[in-house]
Amino acid sequence: MKLHARLALVVIAGLIPMIALQAVEHVETAREREAQALLDVQRQAQLVAGQLEQVSARYRDLLLSVATTPIVRSRNAPACAAYLASLQKQFRDGFTIGASDLDGNVYCMGLPFGQNSPINNADRPYFREALRTRDFVVGELAYAKVPGTAVLHFGYPILDADGKALGVVFASINLPWLARQLVDRPLPEDARLYVTDRRGSLLVELPDEGSIGRALPKELRRLVYATQPGNASVKIADGNTLIAGYVPEASEPRGFAVVLTRPREAVLTPVWRRLAWEAAFAIAAVGIGLVLAFAVARRKVYHPLARLNETAARWRKGDLAARTGLETDADNELRELGKALDGMAEHLARRQEELAAAHEEMRRSRDEAIRANHSKTQFLAAASHDLRQPLHAMNLNIALLSSRLGDSPEVALVERLKRSVANLGELLNALLDVSQLDAGLIRPHLAAVELDGLVRTVVEEFSATAAQKGVKLEADKTDATVHTDPVLLGRMLRNLVSNAIKYTPSSGEVRLSFARTGGRVEIIVRDTGEGIPPERQQEVFEEFRQLGNPQRNPALGLGLGLSIVKRMSTLLDHPVRLHSIPGQGTTVTVSVPLALAAASHATEGRAPLLAGRALLVEDDEVVAQSTADVLRTWGLTVDVVHTAEDASQLFASSSWVWDAVLADHRLPGRPGLDVLLDVQQQHPGALLALLTGDPGDPRVSQARRTGLIVLEKPVRLERLAAVLSPLAAASPREDSPPRVAASRA
Prior knowledge:
By secondary structure, this protein is of the alpha+beta class. Helices cover about 50% and strands about 20% of the residues. The chain has helices at about 5-65, 70-75, 75-90, 125-135, 175-185, 220-225, 265-315, 335-405, 410-440, 450-470, 485-500, 560-570, 620-635, 645-655, 670-680, 700-705, 715-725, 740-745, and strands at about 95-100, 105-110, 135-145, 150-160, 165-175, 190-195, 200-205, 230-235, 240-245, 255-265, 445-450, 470-475, 480-485, 510-515, 520-525, 575-580, 585-595, 615, 635-640, 660-665, 685-690, 710.
């Protein structure tokens, strides 16, 4: 876009707010004018209604006086006619008064009427209404029977001393006369006044006086039947809009309705005319402004800006040595700007050099951080195996000690020791899991798992902790079989249950329940604890965050449980939702897909009865001895070697064929996976299991892909028993013929 066009836009943009403001003000003025006009027509309609109320009250007082006069009550026609004639003379034209009996027969009037042509008012609505209500009534549009002009009747019942109706005294007013009474009050030039009876028939229309008896326009007719006075904008058939004020028939004076209208266009035309004039002046101002702007800009702005634009283009290409040269132009208002921009270019050149040096330093720091993170990952991988190994041995030895003590009183001590070691293992697993999850070293191994058994195991593990704190821990039953990694899902549930118990006070409750939704089952962990404020509910999934432990008391944990749950939910694609109300507890829901078939599970709560021969390859003497003792108590014959080379020599020299081979993955020299792969090729019928304290090792993932069983240390005895369940007591014993002898022959 050219500079001239931009300057034009600048001038126009500067004037647009002013024009817009004026337009808004005029629109607001128009609204106010219309609102005021609505109030004015309503007020004027009410003034007309007040006039009609005065007329109605005047005739009410008159008829009341006449109806109570003895001459009228006596029905003495000559005397009554003389009395009414005297009253008639007191009023100007347009008024007639008379009296009729109960049958409607007129027996006297203020004006002479022919006795040979009797008048009967029984068919008049006002006559019937006066007798019915025993009160003053205003009639409807009618035509006088004598002399036939358009009139409006008023009526009042004639009652005797006992209140019995004797007839009706009436007065009729000439409607043109009524219109002349209303003309006395001036109306706006463009206003139109309508007065109707209760049926909507026109009694008066001003300024047109010849519309008596015509129906009110249908667009205005609804106003006659409103419940109270008001105003409205009404669109009529010709497309124009009227501003109307109205007093409906339901208001005082009863029997009349008043509608006063003005054309909306007539009210608003002065406002729009003024707006048009001001818009014309604004456009003229824009034109003058543009001419002046172009004249000044050509000499003072256009050429200097062209030089600035050229210099800026060179800066964009990296030539920070370019200068505007405007600081030497004394007759230019942009001289200071050019000087400032030249100084900025010099500053940017220096900053560019500094940023290049800083970028190089950041690159070196990033490379060092990447190397440090890689070293940390390697260290944790090694620490994972070395730390899990003694815990695995402790678990095995505690199991042996428990089986040997039998019913000894020290069994309780062993159980406490077992729980302590389990807690230590959970803590170690948490720390290692966070690192391995972040490093992507843990891979899920999905299978069909019976959910009820997994949940029961978790509940049993924490039942003692819950009982000690006085918390009720329960779980509903379920027959669901889910598709998951039982180890990872178990860790998620343990962390959730542990957290729920920790933050539930004594006498509280923690419950695990289930709900099926489509092809998934939701595991619901609900507690009655203190709850979590809404603004901190996402915070609890961060590392080392414990809302109730600001002093970082180690006895209350490290604050890693829910962080691990969040990571594992992402890894397994088991979405986790948290809902909590402070003071009412917390609910955490884990959504797990259903499996197509049930998972097999190990016998729980008692030692398995197995038969057969097993080979254990384990380089740690303590772990090897403990594991072998456990397997022997289960009924197996166990051979132990400590390296892959020892296992190969044993295969070559012995005639035994082993029903199961368990090998530690990290062995001196060749890994345990090589041992199992050799056995798998030579004896495909053997049960093979890889023991590892480093589940993130790529070769462990390879073992899973080849169909081998992988047991992560520390191995839970229930899991080990489940893996060895094919060697139940019905399997071949030590003295049975070797199962793979035929393959050796």
